[in-house]
Amino acid sequence: MRLWAKFCLGILIFSCFSVSFASEVFTASYTEDFDTTIYNIADFGISSWEYSIACHVGTLVVSRVAGYSDSLNGLRLERSGNFGNGNEFFLKSTKKLNGSRQFGSQLLAKVTSGSSTTVQKMNQGTNDPFRPQVYKFTQFPITIEFYLGIRNIQDMYSVQGVGFQFKNGYNLGSFCLYTNNLPTYWQWWWDQDGSNQTQIAVNGATNPLPFFSVDYNVGSNYYINRERPDVRINALFSIIQGDTEKNLDIEDITTPWPRKVGTASLELEGTPSSRTYGVTLTFQDGNGGTGNNFLLKDETEAYSIPFSLYLDGGEVTNSIPILWDGLSADSTVTKAITAAPVNLSESQKLPAGTYSDTVIVSITPQDSNLAVQ
Length: 373
Known about the structure:
mainly beta
């Protein structure tokens, strides 16, 4: 009887955006709002003398994992975009309003934690700490609703049928999220080198995430306050395994080099555009392996073979998301999944039999208009 290795790769799809980050005590997710209908700002529960109207941009939620009691010492956005004088963005309207077709606009954040709600303008350039009164968060989840406030327009009825686009081409830009371990807000404010802060992954990744994935810049086909754009991209995820990839004869392996055990495939369908999309893949060992070790076990579970798993040549770590980005609509991309025994000579000394493992591959979309099937 020979020594066989059986690999089974299963799929688990996450359609929401909640993945652990940093200390693994908190989770963060962002969902873009594709309905950019403009309303009176009071309809969003906001009072401001600077803005009479606004549209909803998206929702950022920070949650604490059950079983923990840790507080969060603060949140800060690091953003890309055009900043100056607190009047960050200019919108161009499809027709004149009050004798003008250009209107100043600004990103607003409505922060709710427990019974406390505060509203602030996000006008501190690339460093946007939330205000001292919401500095230390002890109640979760923290929900941050982002809005685009628009100046010098009387009310929502004045803009019925009027579309808006960003004139300066930044489309609200992108953001990363950070927390810190300093005891006071003002110490963090002057923490110029960032040595006391920790990045929080949003939707499972640490790369900058756009507030708007839809292109609302001048010259595009999409407008704020127009019909909701059909920009949904469908992604069909599959793992392909041939018979020789599911079953390997370990006694025939003469070198520890990785052997192919499957192929991860992503097929994207939707309207082609210049932007790209991303997902994260997370591999979880069914036999309880941790770190970079996965385990093949015999039928009695008395013996096991530690093995390493690789995605497109990069070593996989249990339960750690791997970013797969640069995906384009109307395309199919693949990555090879390979495996190799951690110690080939020791593995070949084990009793003959069938050693198997089931690895669950979880996929999470990084863009709120990307639907994975």
